[in-house]
Every structure is written in structure tokens, then in C-alpha cells.
Amino acid sequence: MRLMDKPVPPTPTRARSAVFVTFFALTLSIVLAWRYGSVWLRRILVYLSQAAWARRLVSSWGIAWRVASRFVAGVDREAAISATRDLNARGILVTLDYLGESCTHEGEALQAREEILRLLGDIDANQLRANVSLKPTQLGLKIDRDLALANICALVERAKTVGNFVRIDMEDSPTVDTTLGIYRQLRHEAGLDNVGVVIQAYLYRSEADIEQLIEEGVRVRLCKGAYAEPAEVAFPRKADVDANYLNLARLLLSRHAAEKGVYPAFATHDATIIEDIKAYTRSHNIPADAYEFQMLHGIRRDLQEQLVDEGHRVRVYVPYGTAWYPYFVRRLAERPANLWFFVSNYFRS
């Protein structure tokens, strides 16, 4: 079983090596960002999020966990439940995510399933206003599709017995068809209606996917997308991703979608996009309980609270667990400000 991303005290030699590698990597990142723009910086960070050598190196730094803890509730379920309780007290809903992805051994997938089963029990026992998100590759998709299907089905069935909901996260583009296929088996063959999916606005295919999912009455979370995708399958320009996001949001908010029972969740911290969605819902008399905004733990807390104060539903994505490294680095890739926050804290330490 893979060693988890738990910080360990560095030896002097390791510390000197880490400083050199970090200085070189950060300098290279800054030069490439200055020369080629943020697209190259994002590509580097997405690569690092998937690189085993980088995971081993960065996970050994105490400063990395101190900065990552801004985005991750903690390493155990108790920390996640505590964070959820605090958010609920502020009128904010939660989706909990036990971190992990791309497992390579069946034992890892089974361990993740058991942890999420316990998580569903804790949500019920504590009467929290929270549901669960999960990644198919964490539950065995890259080992065997049927293994992932069986694990996810067990979790959705357990969630249904306690009146809860499971969101199947979307990962990189090669997994989209398989992930949607698993969802449809759960919904249409197993008869489970307490499950939803995620669609990423940066993929060209997403408009067609949204149109089909509307016909099926699916609960969809719409996000921009956080993986490095080639220009053959995804919009390379941020402006095009933003425009597609708003196009897809309007489809999900259409009268036809509402008639089909679609309940959309708009996952974004982009204030301009949020304002556009708010204006659209006002002009079309769409009630605030017909959709929700979703944001990440530790990012734009001010905007989360502002939206709640305005009467909108807000749900915060609260991750926890020891396998925090890939999630953390993708957060750096999404917003350059997060990277500068990490760099300044690293050198301050």
C-alpha cells in the first residue's frame, strides 16, 4: 500500500537538498510564468501534482503541510467533522471528501471505501448538513472498472439508507465516459437517485454532456476543471473556459432543466461569474433554493459568507486525509495567488 503524504522531520542533508530543489523549481516556475504566461506555470504545477518524486519531496516538508492546511481540514475524520460543524453553524452546507486518487492496489480502494462508509455514519450520527464527494480512481477505476463500480455502489446505497447524497467527482478527460457510465448504471440499473456527477467547463464535449444529463434529470456540479488537458479536448484560453462555463450554467438554469428535476451546483470562486449567475437568476425569477454555489475550504471565505448573507445556498468542499499532496498542488495551479502564498511562507520559515 502506498505511503501516505505525512510530513516527516527532514535530516540536515535532506533539508539542504530540499532548499536547493525548491529554489531551482520556484525560479524555473517564475521564469516560465514571466516568459510564457500563467498557462505554462499551470502546466508545470499540474505535472508536479502527479509526479511521485515531487510528492515524496514536498510531503517531507513541514512548511508544505502548514500551507496545505489552509485548504485541507486535517488528516483525520474528526478534523473534518469539526470543520463541518463550524461551517454549518455559519449557515454553510458542506461536501466532505476523503482525499485519495489513482490507487494501484485493490487494498487501497477497499480501505478508501471503508473510510467513506465510516464518514457517512459520522455525518448521520452528528446530524450534519453535509454530503460526500468521491473520486472513481480512488475506489479502483484504474485497476478494474467493476471494482470501482462495486465500491461506489456500496457507498451510494449506504448513503441512501441514512438519507444522504453522493457526488461522483470528474477527473481527467480519459475517465469521463467511464465515470458517466458508472453514474448511469447506479441511477438507471440500480435505481439509486441519491447520486450526482461533475462536469468540467474546459472540455469541448461538456455542452453535449450537459444537454444529455438534463434530459436524465441529473444533479450536476459545474466546475472549470483542474487537470492538464491537451488543446484537442479542452479550451486552452481562460476566456473561452469562462464563456463556456456561463453557457453551461444557463443550460442548467433553463426552464427545461428545472422541469426535468435538475438541481445545479456552481463550483467557482470567480466573482464575475458568480455575479453573472446571480443576475441571470434574478432576471428569470429563479428561486434561490433551485441551485447552489460551491467553493473550496479555505478559499474566499469572505465571498462564502457574503453569499449566505444574501440568501444564497453555499456549500463548501471540505477535504481531509493524509493523501493531501495532489489536491494541494492543484489548488496552487488554479490560482497563482495561492502559489505566491506558499512561496512567501516557505521562505519566511
Within the largest sheet, what's the order of strands? 1-2-3-4-5-6-7-8
How much helix is in the residues?
55-70%
Rg is 20 Å
**What is the molecular shape?**
globular
- What quaternary form is this? single chain
Percentage of residues in DSSP E strands: 5-15%
Secondary-structure element series: HHHHHEHEHEHEHEHHEHEHEHH
| Count of the domains | 2
Instruction: State the end-to-end distance.
Output: 32 Å
List the helices and strands and how they pair.
Elements (H helix, E strand, L loop, with lengths): L11 H25 L1 H13 L1 H7 L3 H7 L8 H13 L3 E6 L7 H20 L4 E5 L10 H17 L4 E3 L7 H14 L5 E6 L5 H11 L3 E4 L14 H15 L2 H5 L5 E3 L3 H13 L8 E5 L4 H9 L4 E7 L4 H10 L1 H13 L1
Parallel strand pairs: 1-2, 1-8, 2-3, 3-4, 4-5, 5-6, 6-7, 7-8
Tell me what you see in this structure.
The protein is 55% helix and 11% strand. It is an alpha/beta fold and 349 residues long. The chain folds into two domains: 12-68 and 329-348, no CATH class; 77-323, TIM Barrel. The longest helix is centred in the first third of the chain and has 25 residues, at 12-36. The two termini are 32 Å apart.
